[in-house]
Write a structure and sequence with these properties.
Layout (H helix, E strand, L loop, with lengths): L1 E6 L6 H11 L3 E4 L3 H9 L9 H15 L6 H13 L2 E4 L4 H11 L2 H14 L4 H13 L1 H11 L1 H26 L2 E6 L3 H7 L5 E4 L1 H5 L19
Parallel strand pairs: 1-4, 1-5, 2-3, 2-4
Length: 231
């Protein structure tokens, strides 16, 4: 079985993540991280200050995470520690973030760069209430939400979501074939794409909304063991 845990990097999900991993006792816990991001999260060493649109987006994430009483990526730290405590293998399945972000920016048209900069600047003023509203809109029409996102920021959608989905799906397929039981902790926006790409293997999915409710009292949580994606 391959289990996808759809997370949000700014929410307090540590208890739910630990509970989900402990209940499933997988051979491998896979994280949507590359080695550099993993090392930063586990050590929380200050990063060099950079001025870029992606740095502004990271600052936006940090501000929202503070409103939830956490730091960005705490859910990944919780997953890594749960894997360590249970003796599970840990796998980092994402692309090199620095290369990916650089490639995305270089591939954008000028109008798309302008739209991304406007989005990043406006994000500095977004509050928790707006984040909750956007999350509601995402769940009401996930397909439509992603289609609109792709229309406004096509390169961002292709490079930062679709291509990473393909990369992570290949890694997860290999891990599942070699190890069997795998729990993957990935951003909730990647779940639908990964679900479609991995629809031929046994798949369980736990979405962000379920994790936000806290640890489940049921033996296997509230997720369905067989999930079909047709978005």
């Amino acid at each position: 079985m391959l289990t996808l845990l759809g997370v949000g990097h700014v929410f307090d999900l540590g208890p739910s993540i630990r509970d989900a991993i402990q209940r499933r006792a997988p051979k491998v816990v896979a994280l949507e991280l590359d080695p550099a991001r993993f090392a930063y999260l586990m050590n929380r060493q200050p990063r060099p200050t950079r001025v870029s649109v992606f740095a502004m987006l990271a600052q936006f994430q940090s501000r929202i995470a503070e409103q939830y009483g956490v730091q960005v990526g705490d859910e990944m730290v919780a997953a890594a520690k749960a894997a360590r405590d249970m003796g599970c293998e840990l796998a980092l399945i994402d692309q090199d973030s620095r290369v990916t972000l650089s490639r995305a920016w270089q591939s954008m048209s000028f109008p798309e760069r302008v739209r991304l900069v406007v989005f990043a600047v406006s994000g500095l003023f977004v509050r928790r209430k707006r984040v909750e509203a956007e999350l509601d809109r995402f769940y009401q029409d996930e397909r439509g939400y992603l289609e609109q996102f792709a229309k406004e920021l096509p390169t961002v959608k292709r490079v930062l979501i679709d291509e990473r989905d393909a990369h992570m799906a290949d890694a997860l397929r290999q891990l599942h074939a070699a190890k069997g039981e795998v729990v993957a902790v990935v951003g909730d926006g990647h779940v639908a794409g990964l679900g479609r790409l991995l629809s031929d293997i046994p798949l369980e999915v736990v979405r962000l909304r379920e994790l936000q409710r806290g640890p489940s009292p049921s033996p296997q949580g509230t997720a369905s063991a067989t999930v079909s994606y047709r978005l």
